[in-house]
């Protein structure tokens, strides 16, 4: 059972990139299974600092095959740019496999993402503007273009023609925008396809073979459970499933092959874009955390909304994913802050709620029930052993573990690969 899902457990940006880069040392394959270049995964290691959007975070290890699986939507220009930038910095990307089933984010998807957000006005989702929603819409509507389609010019032309006609009707009649030029889109996509041809193949076969050989495969999540299309704070979600279920579908593996579903949590909360966030801080402490942790989007540069750790959302996330263990990141950000707050329940109309409300309008009215824990003055930053941590930090971690109901097996104390505490081996 050698596949491990490393999954965002909150609203994204939990530090999945750092953790996947660290754990990939013990794997032979790292598979991105959902989302697209809405993701921004930061990795800081011996090769430098990198911001990855599509290329899996295991790419830095020579023994690792990075795979972009069927569940991902791929902006071809972005992928080419990312591959080139990595190669320029001496990172070998030749082993990359791009699923022929992965859907392409076409230029009209990006355009529609912007137009749809504008049309939403005050109810805008705050998307990353990368065309992700519209690309998944076309996939579900069965009018999407897959990377494999680009390898057959005639077939691609046949697929593209009705889509462009439909998009042009939408663009001109609904949004009053200019029509798009089918010939130009066709030519450019074919050029990108030719450039990426060498990577395109059956990712399912590659992953399946590795699993048959008992190799360790890391399934790299993007986004986070609270942004899941089914289980997140709909409609303020992304258009795919960043959870363990999405990992199975997106990568094409079965449940018996999953040895662990690992939730990555940061020691507090952040959210980019709209939607309810019960523990949000609109005060100096929130600003301080944002500035000291540089909580600005990796993909869009937008300031992230900051709040204390939300134990109710965390329990829910652990439940809908069936987490087998957790990773806690950014512990060092709380160094010197006291008290450290933790939301253990919600309150609504004078009643205490233990469970995450499923109705958005209810969630929007919930207030946090706080538990204050003593902060710590000695820094945790850079610690590599649990025993090194101040007693108060240990207390905080143990309390989080109780609240989530899942063991915390790894702790990250800084953005660099080595700034990591392994309490129990996750990938073994
Ligand atoms: P991802 O999308 O989940 O991969 O996370 P991002 O890369 O978007 O955001 C996480 C940010 O936190 C990045 O800037 C990381 O370099 C940084 N980071 C990751 N782990 C830690 C940690 O333990 N401590 C600190 N201070 N920064 C961290
Ligand atoms: P990583 O993998 C944080 C958010 C957007 C918006 C919502 C929908 O780096 O954790 P979309 O462009 O997907 O249609 O936007 O989802 N979002 C993310 N927030 N981290 C991400 O990825 C995100 N990917 C999408 O901000 O609220
Ligand atoms: Mg990110």
Textual characterization of the structure:
The chain is of the alpha/beta class. The protein has two domains: 310 residues, Adenylosuccinate Synthetase, subunit A, domain 3 (Adenylosuccinate Synthetase, Chain A, domain 3, Alpha-Beta Complex); 96 residues, Adenylosuccinate Synthetase, subunit A, domain 2. Helix content is 32%, strand content 20%. It contains twelve helices and 20 strands. The protein has a ten-stranded mixed sheet with strand order 9-7-5-2-10-1-11-15-19-20, with helices on both faces. Strands 14, 16, 17 and 18 form a four-stranded mixed sheet that branches. Strand 16 and strand 17 form a beta hairpin. Helix 3 crosses helix 4. The longest helix is centred in the middle third of the chain and has 22 residues. The radius of gyration is 21 Å and the shape is globular. It starts with a strand and ends in a 6-residue tail after the last strand. The model has no long low-confidence stretch (mean pLDDT 97). The site of 6-O-phosphoryl inosine monophosphate (IMO) has 24 residues, from helix 4.
């Amino acid at each position: 059972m050698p596949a491990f899902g490393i999954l965002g457990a909150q609203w994204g940006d939990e530090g999945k990139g750092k953790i996947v880069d660290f754990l990939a040392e013990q794997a032979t394959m790292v598979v991105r299974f959902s989302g697209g270049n809405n993701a921004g995964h930061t990795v800081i290691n011996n090769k430098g600092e990198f911001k990855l959007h599509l290329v899996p975070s295991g790419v830095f290890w020579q023994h690792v095959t990075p795979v972009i699986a069927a569940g991902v939507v791929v902006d071809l220009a972005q992928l080419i740019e990312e591959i080139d930038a990595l190669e320029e910095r001496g990172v070998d990307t030749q082993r990359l496999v791009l699923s022929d089933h992965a859907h392409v984010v076409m230029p009209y998807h990006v355009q529609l993402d912007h137009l749809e957000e504008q049309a939403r006005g005050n109810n805008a989702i705050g998307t990353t503007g990368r065309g992700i929603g519209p690309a998944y819409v076309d996939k579900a509507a069965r009018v999407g273009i897959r990377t494999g389609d680009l390898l057959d010019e005639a077939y691609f032309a046949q697929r593209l023609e009705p889509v462009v006609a439909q998009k042009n009707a939408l663009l001109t009649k609904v949004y009053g925008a200019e029509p798009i030029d089918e010939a130009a889109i066709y030519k450019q996509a074919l050029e990108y396809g030719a450039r990426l041809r060498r990577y395109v193949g059956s990712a399912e076969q590659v992953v399946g073979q590795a699993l048959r050989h008992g190799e360790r495969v890391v399934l790299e999540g993007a986004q986070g459970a609270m942004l899941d299309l089914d289980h997140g704070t709909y409609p303020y979600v992304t258009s795919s499933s960043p959870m363990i279920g999405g990992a199975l579908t997106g990568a094409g593996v079965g449940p018996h092959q999953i040895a662990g579903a690992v939730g990555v949590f940061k020691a507090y909360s952040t959210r980019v874009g709209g939607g309810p966030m019960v523990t949000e801080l609109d005060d100096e402490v929130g600003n301080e955390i944002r500035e000291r942790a540089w909580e600005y989007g990796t993909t869009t540069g937008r300031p992230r909304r900051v709040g204390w750790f939300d134990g109710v959302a965390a329990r829910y996330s652990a439940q809908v994913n069936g987490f087998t263990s957790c990773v806690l990141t950014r512990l060092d950000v709380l160094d010197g802050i006291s008290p450290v707050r933790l939301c253990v329940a919600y309150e609504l109309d004078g009643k205490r709620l233990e469970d995450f409300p499923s109705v958005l309008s209810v969630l929007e009215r919930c207030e946090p029930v706080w538990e204050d824990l003593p902060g710590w003055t000695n820094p945790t930053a850079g610690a590599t052993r649990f025993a090194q941590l101040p007693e108060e930090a240990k207390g905080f971690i143990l309390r989080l573990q109780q609240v989530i109901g899942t063991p915390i097996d790894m702790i990250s104390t800084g953005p660099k690969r080595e700034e990591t505490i392994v309490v129990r081996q996750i990938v073994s």
